[in-house]
Amino acid sequence: MKKVNFINLTLSIAVTLLLSINILQYGFLKGILSTAIAGFLAFIFIYSFEQWWKKWINSYIKIEFMSHREENMKVLSLFDGISAGYVALERAGFKIDKYYASEIDKYATKVSQANYPEIIRLGDITKWKEWDIEKPDIILSGFPCQPYSIAGKRKGLEDERGGNIINAMFGVIEKYKPENLLLENVKGLLSIDSGNTFRNILKTLNEIGYAVDWFIINSALVSAQNRERIYIVGKRLDKCKGFNYTVFMDSNNKRNYQPSLF
Questions:
Q1: How many CA atoms lie within 13 A of 11 on its CB side?
Q2: Is the pLDDT at 104 greater than 50, yes or no?
Q3: What are the residues whose beta carbons fall under 8 Å from the beta carbon of 47, sequence distance 6 or more?
Q4: Across all residues in the chain, what is the average pLDDT?
Q5: Distance CA 156, CA 147 (A)
Q6: For residues 168 and 46, what is the distance between their CA atoms, to the nearest angstrom?
Q7: Is residue 146 very low, low, confident or very high in pLDDT (cuts 50, 70, 90)?
Q8: Does the structure show a pLDDT above 90 at 258?
Q9: Looking at the predicted structure, is the pLDDT value of residue 44 above 70?
Q10: Does the pLDDT of residue 239 top 50, yes or no?
Q11: Mean pLDDT of 163-177
Q12: How far does Cα 241 stand from its chain's mean position?
């Protein structure tokens, strides 16, 4: 079912009521004219406010990222796709020294190669034990969402893409132990197996040596898509400045609000 935009619905109802009142008070032509003027002014106000809001949000996000950026960053991107992580880091102001990418889809790799020929290709993540690369500053991982998506069978870790491959991801993280982690998946990850799958992922990351926090962000904040995604951020415990916790979910699968790691 299509999600209702309550702002548009409210404005539509308000304009309809205003039009009816104005027609009754001023007659048909004057009523339509006065309503049109009022609607136009309202549109200008709302549009201006929306542009200001987006500009403020984007500048706030940029400041937060820029305040923690590193020069000559080494990046390891798992399930790299078309290297959207490279694009995001560049736009956030990070300077990338080396970018290692693990991806098996030949079409996605072809697009990435055309845009970023300098990327070092690692291929299949299940061969991670054979990799010999420099220690990355951050690991990005948009691990397979099919096992958790409401559009699939939702087998979770029982799905080959959700079990063996996720274990390979943990193996990579434990081998290289970068200071920072950024993982992404569908919102449905929260509800698989009553939240136990997600708790196990957080618990494993904590056991490897990371304090972990997580957030749900709708891509509509910065794009035309209306897609909620879960983002898991991790900081190696020795870099946490005293923080050593992992933010788990409560019994209602809601985020426990605690101080931010960064």
A1: 14
A2: yes
A3: none
A4: 76
A5: 5
A6: 48
A7: low
A8: no
A9: yes
A10: yes
A11: 90
A12: 25
* Residues assigned a catalytic role: 145
One domain, residues 118 and 38? no
This prediction's pTM: 0.64
* All residues at 6 or more sequence positions from 74 whose CB lies less than 8 Å from its CB, including other chains: 96, 97, 98, 99, 100, 134, 135, 136, 137, 138
Pair (121, 12) in one structural domain: no
User: How far is it, in rounded angstroms, from Cα 249 to Cα 202?
Assistant: 10
Structure tokens at 229: 């995604």
pLDDT of residue 1: 37
190 and 142 in one domain?
yes
Banded pLDDT at 34 (limits 50, 70, 90):
confident
Which is nearest to 178 in space by CA: 122, 238, 118? 238
Read off the tokens for 245.
């916790």
Among the listed residues 89, 74, 208, the one whose alpha carbon sits nearest the alpha carbon of residue 136: 74
Tell me how many domains the chain contains. 2
Whether 227 and 171 share a structural domain: yes
Taking each helix axis as running N to C, give the angle between helix 28-66 and helix 6-26, from 0 to 180 degrees, rounded to the nearest 10. 160
Domain that holds residue 221: 71-239
Please indicate, yes or no, whether residues 54 and 82 belong to a single structural domain of this protein.
no
CATH number at 97 reads 3.40.50.150
Q: Which two tokens stand for residue 60?
A: 């706030």
With b for 16 or more beta-carbon neighbours within 10 A and e for fewer, the 121-155 pattern comes to ebeebeebeeeeeeebbbbbbbbbbebbbeebebb
Q: Which residue has the tokens 């309503």?
A: 35
Per the CB < 8 A criterion, the answer to whether 140 and 125 are in contact is no
CA distance 152 to 166: 17
